[in-house]
C-alpha cells in the first residue's frame, strides 16, 4: 500500500506538470509552462531548502556541533538528489526490485533486519539490499503498514522477521532502523525482545527524543514522535541500561527532519555524529554501512 500511494503521488505530479504545462504552452506561454513544470516536479527542492533554513534556529541551543553554511549547503544538495531518487523512483516503482536474501545455507552466519521510517517502504534500502546480498549476508527489509498507524502496531511484523532470521541463521540479528524505524525497533524490543535476541541495533536519524518536524503531521505515529511525547517517555521508562548498551545512534547537525540534532541520540547508547548530512543522506554515508559489516563480524556479547 505504501508503494501504491507514493506511486499515485508521483503520477499526479507528472500529470499536473504535463497537463497545466501543456495548456500554458498551447496558450503561447512556453516560459511559464516550463517554470510551472519545474515547480511541480522539483518543488521538493525548495521545501528542503526551507527545512535547512530553519535548522540554525531549531539547533541554536543544541549541544551538537554547530553546522556552518557550507555544511548546510552540502547537506541540502545531497539530500535533494537523494530524495529525488528515493521518493521519485525507488519507493514508488522499485520497492520489490531487491528481494530479501535468505540462503538455505545461512546457518552460523548473522542476519540483518532493515526497518524504514515514516511514510517510506522497503525500497529505501535497495542499495543496502544489493550490497548485503553480494556479501551473502542474510537480510530482510520490511514495509511497515499501516503507514500512519501507531508505531506499536509494527512490533508483530518485526517479531516475525526476527524469528525468520533466527531460524535461518541460529544467531541473533543486527537490526538497523532509519528514522521512525529505530523507534519501531525499540517498540518491538519492549513487546518481544530481550538482550540475547539482538546482536546490535543501529539507528540512523531516529527521533529518540522526538522531533520538531512531527508537529506538521496529524498522523498517529507522527504524534508519537513529537518532542517529549507521552509515548516516547513511556517507551524510555521501560528500557534497560543493558538494552541501550547494544545500540549505536547515528545523527547529524544538518538532519532536516529530526531536529534538534541531539534528539536522535539516546542516553546509554553509543553516539556517532555524521557532519553535513541530511536525513535521507544518512543512508549513503559510507561509515554507516562499514560499521554494519564490522558489527556482523563481532562475536556475541557474553
TrEMBL record:
- Domain AB hydrolase-1 per the UniProt entry, residue ranges: 112-233
Give a GO molecular function annotation for the protein: hydrolase activity
Top-level lineage group: Bacteria
Ordered alphabetically, the record's keywords are: Hydrolase, Membrane, Transmembrane, Transmembrane helix
Q: Which InterPro entries match?
A: AB_hydrolase_1, AB_hydrolase_fold
Residues that span the membrane, as ranges: 7-25, 31-53
Identification of the protein by name: Alpha/beta hydrolase family protein
Q: Which organism is it from?
A: Roseateles toxinivorans
Provide the taxonomic classification: Bacteria, Pseudomonadati, Pseudomonadota, Betaproteobacteria, Burkholderiales
Amino acid at each position: 500500500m505504501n508503494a501504491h500511494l507514493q506511486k499515485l503521488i508521483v503520477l499526479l505530479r507528472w500529470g499536473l506538470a504535463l497537463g497545466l504545462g501543456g495548456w500554458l504552452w498551447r496558450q503561447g506561454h512556453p516560459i511559464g509552462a516550463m517554470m510551472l513544470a519545474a515547480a511541480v516536479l522539483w518543488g521538493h527542492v525548495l521545501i528542503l531548502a526551507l527545512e535547512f533554513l530553519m535548522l540554525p534556529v531549531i539547533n541554536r541551543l543544541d549541544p551538537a556541533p554547530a553546522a556552518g553554511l557550507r555544511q548546510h549547503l552540502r547537506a541540502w544538495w545531497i539530500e535533494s538528489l537523494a530524495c529525488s531518487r528515493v521518493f521519485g523512483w525507488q519507493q514508488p516503482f522499485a520497492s520489490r526490485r531487491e528481494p530479501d536474501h535468505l540462503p538455505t545455507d545461512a546457518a552460523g552466519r548473522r542476519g540483518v533486519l532493515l526497518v524504514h521510517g515514516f511514510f517510506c517502504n522497503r525500497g529505501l534500502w535497495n542499495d543496502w539490499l544489493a550490497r548485503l546480498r553480494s556479501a551473502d549476508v542474510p537480510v530482510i527489509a520490511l514495509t511497515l503498514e499501516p503507514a500512519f498507524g501507531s508505531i506499536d502496531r509494527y512490533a508483530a511484523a518485526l517479531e516475525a522477521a526476527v524469528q525468520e532470521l533466527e531460524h535461518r541463521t541460529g544467531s541473533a540479528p543486527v537490526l538497523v532502523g532509519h528514522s521512525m524505524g529505530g523507534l519501531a525497533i525499540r517498540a518491538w524490543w519492549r513487546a518481544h525482545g530481550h538482550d540475547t535476541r539482538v546482536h546490535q541495533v543501529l539507528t540512523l536519524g531516529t527521533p529518540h527524543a522526538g522531533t520538531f518536524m512531527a508537529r506538521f503531521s496529524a498522523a498517529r505515529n507522527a504524534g508519537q514522535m513529537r518532542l517529549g511525547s507521552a509515548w516516547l517517555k513511556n517507551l524510555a521508562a521501560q528500557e534497560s541500561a543493558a538494552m541501550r548498551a547494544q545500540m549505536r545512534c547515528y545523527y547529524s547537525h544538518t538532519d532536516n527532519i529530526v531536529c534538534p540534532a541531539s534528539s536522535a541520540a539516546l542516553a546509554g547508547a553509543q553516539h556517532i555524529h555524521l557532519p553535513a548530512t541530511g536525513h535521507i543522506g544518512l543512508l549513503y554515508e559510507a561509515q554507516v554501512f562499514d560499521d554494519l559489516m564490522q558489527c556482523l563480524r563481532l562475536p556475541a556479547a557474553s
